[in-house]
From TrEMBL:
First-level EC class: ligase
Function: Catalyzes the synthesis of GMP from XMP.
Catalytic activity: XMP + L-glutamine + ATP + H2O = GMP + L-glutamate + AMP + diphosphate + 2 H(+)
Domain of life: Bacteria
One Pfam family named in its UniProt record: GATase
Protein name: GMP synthase [glutamine-hydrolyzing]
One term of GO molecular function: GMP synthase activity
Keyword list, A-Z: ATP-binding, Glutamine amidotransferase, GMP biosynthesis, Ligase, Nucleotide-binding, Purine biosynthesis
Residues at the active site: C78, H166, E168
Amino acid sequence: TVVVLDFGAQYSQLIARRVRELHVYSQIVPYTISAEELKQMQPKGIIFSGGPASVSAEGSPRPDAAIYDLGIPILGICYGLQVLSVQNGGSVQRPEKREYGFADLQLLGKDSVLLRGISENSRVWMSHGDSVMSIPAGFETTGSTFNCPYTVIENAGKQFYGVQFHPEVVHSAQGKQILSNFVLTVCKAATDWDMGSFVNTAIEDIRSKVGDKQVLCGLSGGVDSAVAAVLIHRAIGDQLVCVFVNNGLLRKGEAEMVQKVFRDNYNIRLQYADAEQAFLSALHGVSEPEAKRKIIGKLFVDTFYNEARNAGEISFLAQGTLYPDVIESKSPSGGPSATIKSHHNVGGLPEDLKWELLEPLRELFKDEVRQLGRELGLPEEMVTRHPFPGPGLGVRCVGEITKERLDTLRDVDAIFIDEIRKAGLYDDIWQALACLLPVKSVGVQGDERTYEEVCSLRAVTSEDAMTADWFRFPPEVLQRASSRICNEVSGVNRVLYDITSKPPGTIEWE
Ligand code: XMP
């Protein structure tokens, strides 16, 4: 194990993830952990994360100083480097110029295990206000940058290392090498961690947390809740009850797929709520996007909790919350990082339901969850699925929502996705979708005049859905999708391709 001591960094989990990429088990703990507790974890190494505080500020986070006597190698990153310096007798100051962004790392010609294989002027990514002004006795400087004389410091005898930059972010060109030098060469950590071992640890955690109580999990058809459910089911079997609400706004075949996978393949207790009629009636005559969203959101919550009340005595609500969902709300280990955005997946729990949250995927990134899904045997189609909004086709059926229009949209969407898959482009696209527009157009089919609906196709690339660019299809793919849609979907005679980026457009139309 390599333990990451969390000082409230946005990047703590990224550090842990980089360690996992080296096949070494990594765990994040709050910086307040005692040296004694740490010792019992028997880590091969300790990484001090960065953090938003200034070491020179009063009351800034400090780890138990007895950690330095455990004889365990330490790597301090950014704030971690500064804490390491100060607690061992160095000093830190806030210089006039803060340093953010790229810098070139100059090696000082010393033989440092940490810097083995690193090139002169390797690009590193800095983000700090304070800087080390003098290093502790017994330490030496092995790397510097133009603005920061003490960029890499070490006490090789004690195996204490510190770097002012962030080796865990991709912007630091050789950051992975530095972490690997620390974890594998300095700490000699065992490389025996993989997704299989994650599953085993997670199962133990779930069992010990849940005991003989019952867990409820809402399935959406998306990858996160699916993986969470299957993992929890492996741990506690029939103590898990899943609820799936068919709101009538799902994609073609989705409700059937969810039932088949969870009921037939995994034998999971699944309560399927067919609420299509209720949603269609509530949405009747409503075209305004925010009004639609509110109706769908409220009815979903009502339906979900009605189902929950029928599920017996429930103690836990399972959610497929991932690390990126948590990263902006608070520091994952309960550490001191600033609240940037509150995030919630299930809006407003009713007061009478006192459930504890069970979130077994909180430490993972999306690609790790996909890998985990494969490990648990989920179908590839489900594991790699594009994101789909909670309000579903409701926000893609622009204008009035009727069963007929939804069915038309489902057919259009299925053909578009099918052509994307056939062209081998599905995984190059963040999200692909079709909208049905509230306009009709004149066309000609055979010798007949037609006057039918218009659909718009959209595919975007994105890192995080905050910004997006439209996907450049080879024209043949659009051509095939267009002619199939007009030929196979009755009621549609015109196909548009949306070339709006985000911003100014959003990914969804409503
Ligand atoms: P926009 O349209 O805001 O979408 O650019 C960004 C991403 O969020 C998805 N989305 C939603 N997801 N509930 C969700 O769970 C929603 O109400 C919702 N609205 C949009 C959208 O599909 C895209 O991935």
